[in-house]
Specification:
The complex is a heterodimer. By secondary structure, chain A is mainly alpha-helical. In chain A, about 55% of the residues lie in helices and about 5% in strands. Chain A has one domain. Chain B is an all-alpha fold. Chain B has a two-stranded antiparallel ribbon with strand order 1-2. Classes of the chains: A mainly alpha, B mainly alpha.
Chain lengths: ~325, ~400
Amino acid sequence: MKELFILAVVTVFTLLTYYLVEPFAHSQMHKHFESEGFTYKDLPALTKKGDATRGKDLVMGAGACVGCHGIEVAGLPAPMDPVTAAQSYGVNPPDLSNAGAVYDAKFLANLIKNPAHALMVEHKFDPAKGKMHPMPQFYGAGGDIDQEIVDMVAYLQSIAPKPEELSADQAFETACGRCHAIHYEYNLDGELHPAWTQIGEKPAFKKKQDELKFESNVLDYQDALTKYMGTLPPDLSMYIRSRGEHYIKTFVENPQNYLKGTAMPRVGVNAEAAEKIIEHLENVGDSKRHKREEVGKNVMMYIFIFAIFAILWKKEVWRDLH
Amino acid sequence: MAHFTKATSLHDWLNQRLAIDTLRRVLATEYWIPKNINFLWAMGMVLAITFAFLLVSGIFLLMYYQPNVDLAFDSVNYTIMQEVGYGWLWRHVHGVAASVVFLVIYIHMFTGIYYGSYKNGREMIWLSGMLLFVAFSAEAFSGYMLPWGQMSYWAGMVITNLFSMGGLHMDGLVEWIRGDYVPGQAFLNRFFMLHVLLIPLAILGLIGLHFGALRIPHVNNQDGEEIDFDAEAKKYLAGDKANSKVIRFMNDFMSKDMMVVGIYLIFFFYLVFYHYDFAMDPVNFDPANGLKTPTHIYPEWYFLWSYEILRPFSTNVGLIAFAFAQVIFFLLPFLDRSPNAIPASRRGLFKYWFWAMLIDMIILTAMGKVPPAGLFSAIGFYAALTFIGLWIILPFVTKFEKKV
């Protein structure tokens, strides 16, 4: 009984110290935000129902989207290569093939209407000061502007893969990959995926010259991006361990929460895409998590059995000693 | 030369050459340990096992780690954590064991303080133990540099800055230690050498000294009772095991040790697989960047109490207080003026001194991590004063203690 009492004293002091230096200290050091479930409550809700056919005409025509954006699934390649695009706009405008699956519909509609507002970068792009966001606002094609916008969103959704078809790396590439690199290759289901740069996957090169040309393009892109953002957005290879799921999700949902005045836009992903992005970051930065759980279970089982045998051995040895 | 006969067995062959029977008797079967002990007496074995985990996992990590400022971070976080089979396991074992070993060291130290196991002939046990504590601290700090993450870099910066010695302005000393103006390649290389060679050698030597120091004064017991080990051993060997106050190291003591180790390992591996963030700070998963200071820089939890003795004072006073905190535990056997080597609960005022010291160090630990502002600053300041005050009054508290 005395030993149990001593054990209780040791345990209480250990847990108290743990509580103070971990949960308590971190609650004092870091701001905490709860996720709003990627609902973007500050943006007005959509009241109209979109029509994809009309939307297609707008996207291809009066909406002027394809002047800057490629839509590969519709057979429209990007009008410029990534480096030239970044040098023109600051960042390469995304291909819209997956936009309808990755971004929240309400967010997309608000983005088309007023990009700087939806992206939460009005502190950086203020038309009154002559600083325009590189994506122009859509002022309407002559009809009901709200109807026109939901039509365009409906079209983007109609060409996008279904949520369950969107892969983790597609979600990452569409939402994050034009600013953030991941320089770690990763293995998924036995397949090796190359490192990711802001201008795309890093291919395997046969000739050193080709590799150097590619690297040079990446550096040119990064220079343009750095000028546009103020700093080069970080490589996300280990972000799942350095920031964790909760921080990444709540940061992506509203970057201004944690970093007031940051140039990082609110990217407006929907909840499913956010999960996919986390999954991708786990695939890259915590690729052995399943193995860890599996091995952990076996080791714990083995140690339990070891402890039982150790206790039985002690009992046997000490039978004569008492 | 000794006379050798034709061996009758492998055992006999070895025995003639290595005296393995004598060794076994002296080191195991007739190495006598008091019977009146509780599980806290197993912390030595728990530490030995944890150190073995550190050593073995460290050897595996060493096969892939690259001590180069451009490669170190990725060799740890990519090569070891993701490419090498079970590399992640070795790293988690190494990282968690490095933290847990200090928890057990602190339990081991406070057990020694509580039961008075540092005096009346046991001074060398205490002193060699304190040297081990210093060596483990240096090992932990140098190891923390190696992943070359943000916390490695900035903790290295802050701690080596201490060597400018405040008002003494020994600026050249800091550069000499770093081999550069800021932590860089030379810095990483030398800390790598310290971590994988020099300090482990020192630790192995000190462990030998620590074990050797136990031999003559013997292990203390739960009531501080003075035991006639020869008489009690005779009783045991005569077959009266139940009434003898001593037990064999092997298997009697060992079986109890292994029971505690078994239960400890459940706790340890739970941390390794399911709760490792406390030992592997997320901030250190950002690569070192000398142009980007992290918002909060703090040492690992086991250094926080002494860090907080440094922090609340002005530079010079803080450094003196910090130096005081580093050496004062060494002096415990000499500052304790009471002849009683018994549990604190039976030692009058010392009982209150013990619990006050323990709680004060926990408060210092907590305040060492939170941002030093407002109320936390004040609490840290008074806790640091209390720490110094407790050591100053210790000789007086113990001087007037009644002999029990």
